[in-house]
Specification:
Shape: globular
Largest sheet: 6 strands, antiparallel
Number of helices: 0
Order of helices and strands: EEEEEEEEEEEE
Strand content: 35-45%
Radius of gyration: 15 Å
Length: 154
């Protein structure tokens, strides 16, 4: 049957859900909604049969072929959200996204960090979106299609 997501009483279909993670010490799930350019939040209740999951857009604004934009999660923009991972304390959500120039080339990679306390999207690595394999800090780093994420306990 599948999961029929509703947001504000209207259908909220996922378009290529490419990543899923749960926040530590929470039953909430976060979904990388790749082709909608969003991060969705799914609130799970204790009895899924009686109370279906409640979906909401956690971060991002649907805008195809728009450059990624940081700032508050309500106005942030993502390009091709691929994978998600929470820090062990649940205070940060790392987002892997493929940067596309509109021509379908998803090999340019960007990692972004969401501060859950301030609900702010920050740039982390590869913000220029340039294709490559160069080590470096912040904008000096170049990533080639990052497809997996993990945080390790300190």
């Amino acid at each position: 049957d599948g999961l029929n997501l509703q947001e504000n009483g209207a259908p909220a279909p996922l378009f290529d859900a490419s990543g899923l993670c749960s926040r530590p010490n929470s039953s909430d799930l976060y979904i990388a909604d790749d082709q909608n350019y969003l991060i969705r939040k799914l609130v799970l209740g204790p009895d899924l049969a009686a109370n279906p999951p409640v979906a909401s857009t956690f971060a991002g604004v649907f805008a195809r072929r728009s450059p990624h934009v940081g700032g508050p999660i309500s106005v942030a923009r993502f390009t091709r959200v691929r994978r998600l991972a929470f820090s062990p304390d649940g205070e940060h959500l790392m987002v892997s996204q493929a940067h596309s120039d509109g021509g379908g080339d998803r090999s340019k990679g960007v990692l972004r960090l969401i501060d859950m306390g301030s609900n702010t999207v920050m740039e982390s690595f590869g913000p220029s979106g340039e294709k490559g394999h160069n080590d470096g800090y912040g904008s000096q780093a170049q990533l080639h299609n990052p497809t997996g994420l993990a945080f390790f306990p300190e």
